[in-house]
Amino acid sequence: MRTNLPVPERALAVGAHPDDIEFGCGATLAKWAEAGCKIALLVCTDGSKGTWDATTDPAELVVTRRAEQRAAARALHPDAEVVLLGWHDGELESGLRQRWEVAAWIRRLRPEVMLGHDPWKRYRLHPDHRNAGWLVTDGIVAARDPLFFPELDAPPHRPSTLLLFEADEADHVEEVTGYGDAKLAALLEHRSQHRSTMGIFSAPSGADEALHPDVVEFRRGVGDELAAHGALAGCAAGEAFHRIEGL
Ligand SMILES: [Zn+2]
What we know:
By secondary structure, the chain is an alpha/beta fold. The protein is globular. It has helices at about 20-35, 60-75, 95-110, 125-145, 180-190, 215-230; strands at about 1-5, 10-15, 40-45, 80-85, 115, 160-165, 170-175, 240-245. Strands 1-7-8-6-5-2-3-4 form an 8-stranded mixed β-sheet, with helices on both faces. Bound molecules: zinc ion. Zinc ion binds near residues 16 and 20. Zinc ion binds next to loops.
C-alpha cells in the first residue's frame, strides 16, 4: 500500500453527480487545499433524478443541487473551483462529445493530479458512475495528445497521477486525519440528498443539526469508512484509491 502523494499544485476531481466527489475524495481535497493546492470539482450531471419523491420538479431540483454543490465545495475550501457540466442525470454517456468537454477542462485547469470514479469497479450498478470513470481516463488521453481536438484553445496537458476512488483494487491511501469534519460538512450541504443517500430524515438546519440522531449515525458511517481506509495503511483516517502513474 502506497501513501500520501506530495501535495500537488493543482488537482481536478471528476464526479458523476453532485456529492460523489465529496464521498470519494472530499477529505483529501480539503487536506491538499489547506496546504496550498488549487482544487477544482467537475460534476458531469445535473443531479435531476436524485430524489425518491416522484412529485419533485426536476428543474427545481437542478437549481437546488447546483447551489448545494457550490456550498459543499466551499466547505472543503473557500477557494475551491466548481465546474458543472449539466448533462442529464442517469443519461451520462462517455462518447466523443463528453470526452471533448472533459479534455477541454483538463487543458484549461492543468491539474497535476486527477481524481475520479474507478470505471473498472466490478458489479457497479449506476451507469453514470461507470461513464464518469471512462470520461476521466479517456479525457486524460485526449487532453495530453496534441492531435486530439486541435480546435481547443488551450495547449495539451498531461497530468502526472490519477487516483481512482471507489477503487476495485485499492493500492494507495491518503492520510486524512483531521479532515473528516470538512468532508462531513461538505456532504451535509447536499441537503436534498439527506433522505435518499444519507439516511437523514427531518433533521433541523442550524446548530441542532449535529445532534440529530440520523446525523450522528451518518457521521459515524463516514468516520467508520475513513477508519477502514486508513487502516489499510496503518493510519487513523484515510481515503483509499487505485493509483495510476505514467499517464
Ligand atoms: Zn453518484
